[in-house]
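User: Can you help me understand a structure? I only have the sequence.
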Amino acid sequence: MKQLKPAKNMRIKNHVTPKGKALNSQLSAKFGITLADFEKACMGDLTSIQRIGELNKQATFMTEYAPKLKDAYLTIIEGTETYNLALADILKA
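Assistant: Let's start by predicting it. Here is the structure, written out as tokens:
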């Protein structure tokens, strides 16, 4: 993949961040990434691009597999419960 040359300065005006400081701090606190990382990535900063890409890869994985893993855990719990109830019934007899 061809690497883009980094931009020297941002010429596109950011109208959002000054009004969204609370949201930006929440992004930082909850996800460890800020809109500054987005701006750096847009300017061609390879470290920021890789960081965003890694978070995206993890989020994509979780979106696909977390529901399946949750179902697997619930099945394990239900199966264990059923097994132990059966053992208890046998021992009561």
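Now, to help you interpret it: The CA atoms of residues 21 and 27 lie 10 Å apart. The helical segments are 21-31, 35-42, 46-92. Let me know which part you'd like to focus on.
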